[in-house]
Amino acid sequence: MGKPPRQAVILAGGLGTRLGALTRETPKPLLPVAGKPFLDYLLWNLKRHGFERVLFLLGYKAMRIIEHYGSGAGHGLADDAQRNTRLEVEYAVETEPMGTGGALRLAKDYLDERFLLLNGDTLFDFNYLDLALLEGPAAVALRRVPDTARYGRVRLEGNRIIGFGEKEGKGPGLINGGVHVLSRPAVELLPEGVSSLERDLFPRLVERGELLGKPYEGFFLDIGLPEAYTEAQKALPAWRKKPAVFLDRDGVLNHDEGYTHRPEQWRWTEGAVEAVKWLNDRGYLVLVITNQAGIARGYYTEEHFLQFTAWIHEQLRLAGAHLEATYYCPYHPQGLGPYRRDSEDRKPNPGMFLRAIADWQPDLSRSLAIGDKESDLQAAQAVGVRALRFAGGNLLRFVQDALSESGR
Ligand SMILES: [Mg+2]
């Protein structure tokens, strides 16, 4: 199975001519939406899926984007502080317009073996890691529209695309949603010079039977037209306010065998991986909130805990699922050295919930917390989040029942 990609490549070199005066000084992806650049929303979405590196393919007004994001260290992402994650930013700049295919080919030495490719002026939100589960040199996220005539129809047989960009025929159908998982061998098929992914690469891959596709139903917004850009001012902040599911770790995600801290001790609860993916597929933020007194007691170090947490996150990514973040409390009143203290973070205190809420700003009215102990429930209830006790069994079924009850 192909490894889930860590690199996202963003096409951000277009002229944005349809937006007229708006893009005279500012490249389209940098236009402000509710007070921050459109690209910030895109980067936030990539980070929460666990992407670590972004490569911008630039042309028009490239310096504006480079000056804004620099090496990616915090800038423009400051209000989305995500501890333990980073986003490195790189740039490839064309000196003359090369088209989407030409720009990608020009940057081929900077590409990972597999990467996510997306447009810098559209946001299509779905579980990107699910698309990465498709095996093959190239996979396209598809979107269902009432009339394909304007875009070019995509025909699908199973997961294989058998027709791409067909202009004939009207009515409902599938189109390219502008998010792709590509591999370097696919990029090698592009001709030298100016080329287009839509005209020169995807049809070629279809001929070879190598273009895969899957339809998704997530939030979609293209700021390329003036009315859509106006709509974005309200629609994007509303989209960004996602419901969250806060999960305790030991006894919820895994069988609690006491101070679990090594892969060989880890046993997933039945349905746990599926539960996380089910939530990812439906647009929930999934945040782990865990007391880690084992650090205070000296059973393992904080460094070791972070490495182990990265391993857990990676196991989920391999299954097409992801955790937005893991919050932990290393303190305990009977701990050792600097870890010996009362902490606002240690459940039943709500400190970790407060930090997670500040970082992610979820819609609490649609959020849910799941724990196996009374202290988990108390911490969640202290911040006004509905909390349920999980007493074992299948976590997927538990989550499905809990969220259908709430009328979703
Ligand atoms: Mg527990």
Question: What is this structure's SSE topology?
Answer:
Layout: E1 7-11, E2 32-33, E3 36-37, H1 38-48, E4 53-58, H2 62-69, E5 88-93, H3 99-106, E6 114-119, E7 122-124, H4 128-131, E8 138-145, E9 153-157, E10 160-166, E11 173-183, H5 184-187, H6 197-207, E12 211-216, E13 220-222, H7 226-240, E14 244-247, H8 272-281, E15 285-291, H9 293-296, H10 302-318, E16 325-329, H11 351-360, E17 368-371, H12 374-382, E18 386-389, H13 395-405
Parallel strand pairs: 1-4, 1-6, 4-5, 8-12, 14-15, 14-17, 15-16, 17-18
Antiparallel strand pairs: 2-3, 6-11, 7-13, 8-11, 9-10
Helix pairs in contact: 3-6, 8-13
Bound molecules: magnesium ion.
Q: What can you tell me about this protein's structure?
A:
This protein has 408 residues and is an alpha/beta fold. The chain folds into 2 domains: 7-238, Spore Coat Polysaccharide Biosynthesis Protein SpsA, Chain A (Alpha-Beta Complex); 244-405, HAD superfamily/HAD-like (Rossmann fold, 3-Layer(aba) Sandwich). Helix content is 30%, strand content 23%. The protein has helices at 38-48, 62-69, 99-106, 128-131, 184-187, 197-207, 226-240, 272-281, 293-296, 302-318, 351-360, 374-382, 395-405; strands spanning 7-11, 32-33, 36-37, 53-58, 88-93, 114-119, 122-124, 138-145, 153-157, 160-166, 173-183, 211-216, 220-222, 244-247, 285-291, 325-329, 368-371, 386-389. A 7-stranded mixed beta sheet has the order 5-4-1-6-11-8-12, sandwiched between helices. Strands 16-15-14-17-18 form a 5-stranded parallel beta sheet. The chain starts with 6 loop residues before the first strand and ends with a helix. Mean pLDDT is 92; it is low at 75-84. It is found in: Cytoplasm. GO terms for molecular function: metal ion binding; phosphatase activity.
